[in-house]
Amino acid sequence: MAKREVKQWAGVSDESVLARTGHSWRQWFVILDRAGAQRMTHKEIVAVLVANHELGPWWQQMVTVGYEQWAGLRDRYQKSDGYEISGSKVVPVPVNTLYRAWRDRRQRGRWLPDAPFDFGKATPGKSLRLLWRDGTKVDVFFSTKGEEKSQVALQHRRLPNAKAAAAMKQFWKEGLGRLAEVLAPRER
Prior knowledge:
Alpha-D-Glucose-1,6-Bisphosphate, Chain A, domain 4, alpha+beta, two-stranded antiparallel sheet, 42% helix
């Protein structure tokens, strides 16, 4: 991968990184290049930031990931244990209705048929863990957005490569769209 110039790295805008760290993304890239970060591991880059810059742990990670993406050392969606994508959808139904649409096999079959997973840990109305049969994991979170509105947000983790991450990003976009249509059909 080649170095790229965009306005956002590691999901953080240039304005945010400047406001919170005192340096723009471009400045961080120069600082870390001069420190030899191109030849360092993730952990070594973080150590440079810890030793030489007053950043909290979260910003140490964000600056490191942003640099790695810019320098071509890390793909979009790539984490230390594989690739991870996320998705979310707000639906005009109470949170318990939304939760049941995931937990109840019959309801789930209307919008996510034949999905290859087993349920792991669950907290009713709050969260679910799906253990995908390919070894990946999906964490699903439910939140109330109003009396008759709720949100589902998910993270699909440990995907093997960028191609699988892109495919699952599309899979969940379509699946969450079907979920919303099943729970709150629009009039045509």
